[in-house]
Design brief:
Blueprint lengths: L4 H17 L4 E4 L2 H8 L4 E7 L5 E6 L1 H7 L5 E3 L6 H7 L7 E4 L6 H10 L4 E4 L1 H9 L3 H18 L2 H4 L6 H14 L18 E5 L37 E9 L2 E10 L5 H20 L6 H14 L18 E3 L6 E5 L12 E4 L2 E4 L3 E4 L2 E5 L4 E3 L8 E2 L1
Parallel strand pairs: 1-5, 3-4, 5-6, 9-17
Antiparallel strand pairs: 1-2, 2-3, 7-8, 8-9, 10-11, 10-12, 12-15, 13-14, 15-16
Length: 394
């Protein structure tokens, strides 16, 4: 499905306003997600967005697919990156004196190469400007996110029938992922963070949910070995263990993030209590999650509630592995703005989309908690991960 032309140009116009405000001549967009966001194609390309006027999409491979996928007006083949300055000049753009680059994700070698071909040009980081534009979703994007939420509910409602004693995490993950793919899940989860690779998400049984990892989140897991040390491993499921299914649902590129907890037979009272606290934290945060609120205050509220419950040491991790946030933006990437964390004084705006995930981790028992994705509306929130929040005992 092609992104409509009107949608692309509305996004570009918002970004151009930020360029003009900073007196930046233009920006060169190369990161795949940003490229797709502004052009509608993820083909190997460089997109030049001037502060005013038409953008130019220069395509290395595949030019024919880019023409089919992108609704931009100016799409041309690119034989060599060395030709970019000449191509801009021939297309009528003035030679940029101040050029914006995505410096949060751009490889150093490529940055140095641009310094060679754009002689005398100064570079400035526009990654924050891009992420600021992307964090407020359009009606078109919001509908794609709602659709992703509906599809994830289809997957999660089949999960109880997949669980039985003795199944391993990776065997169970294969069944869940097969269901996801059968209804069009895109599979690859994009994160902006350097070395932030993740597959579908995390499936964890019992004590596996208490195994930390390098992943910047509350859960980790053993994974299948040191090369990818997170998520589903070879742990077999026993009765009375929490089953964590924390998966990103991705359709048409747009991501919803959702966690639900299951078990075969009842869980220990300690875990049931912690799960109930996670629901109370979610409810309290949602009462205050509305436009104009400082995101940092929401995280501090959750910390205070975990402390009152006597669970501060297990909130969002344990020991040095505790994550320092309550929630995060989602969209084309899993780690978009806004980040709901202490000290990050982001003001919540309408049409932001956030995943809220209060969780408790016990190294000897595992993880319990909840995660849902919400659209910020003018008056509050719309929950778009519609699977019931109940703890499911099989």
């Amino acid at each position: 499905m092609n992104t409509p032309k009107s949608e692309l140009y509305a996004r570009i116009e918002k970004f151009q306003a930020k360029l003009a405000d900073k007196k930046i001549d233009g920006a060169l967009i190369v990161q795949t997600v940003d490229l797709y966001y502004f052009s509608g194609t993820a083909q190997s390309s460089h997109l030049y967005i001037p502060a005013q006027g038409e953008p130019l999409l220069m395509v290395r491979k595949s030019f024919n697919r880019a023409q089919q996928e992108s609704e931009l007006n100016n799409i041309v083949p690119l034989k060599s990156l060395k030709h970019i300055p000449t191509m801009l000049a021939e297309a009528g753009y003035k030679v940029p004196q101040l050029l914006g680059l995505e410096m949060d994700v751009l490889p150093a070698s490529q940055y140095l190469f641009y310094g060679e071909i754009f002689a005398g040009c100064k570079f400035i980081d526009v990654s924050r400007n891009i992420r600021d534009v992307r964090q407020v979703k359009s009606p078109y994007e919001l509908q794609l996110l709602r659709d992703a939420g509906v599809n994830m509910d289809i997957v999660y409602r089949d999960i109880p029938a997949m669980l039985h004693e003795g199944i391993t995490e990776v065997e169970f993950a294969a069944q869940v992922e097969s269901k996801c793919r059968s209804i069009g899940h895109m599979g690859y989860t994009r994160l902006r963070a350097f070395n932030g690779d993740i597959f579908y998400g995390h499936i964890l049984f019992g004590p596996s949910g208490g195994v930390p990892s390098a992943f910047d989140g509350p859960t980790g897991g053993t994974g299948l070995g040191p090369f990818h040390p997170q998520g589903a491993g070879r742990k077999k499921l026993n009765k009375g263990e929490p089953v964590v299914v924390d998966y990103a649902g991705i359709w048409e590129g747009y991501i919803v993030d959702q966690t639900r907890i299951y078990s075969i037979g009842p869980l220990p009272e300690k875990l049931v209590f912690a799960y109930e606290v996670s629901l109370k934290i979610q409810a309290a945060v949602l009462e205050r999650l509305q436009p104009g609120v400082n995101a940092s205050e929401l995280h501090e509220l959750s910390l205070a509630m975990a402390n009152v419950a006597g669970l501060a040491g297990n909130y969002m991790g344990s020991g040095s592995g505790q994550a320092k946030f309550l929630g995060h933006g989602v969209g084309l990437e899993l780690d978009e703005f806004p980040v709901i964390a202490k000290g990050l004084n982001t003001v919540i705006q309408p049409n932001m989309v956030v995943a809220i995930e209060p969780k408790f981790i016990f190294p000897d028992l595992g993880t319990v908690g909840i995660e849902n994705t919400f659209i910020i509306t003018e008056s509050g929130v719309e929950k778009i991960t519609t699977t019931p929040d109940d703890l499911v005992i099989i």
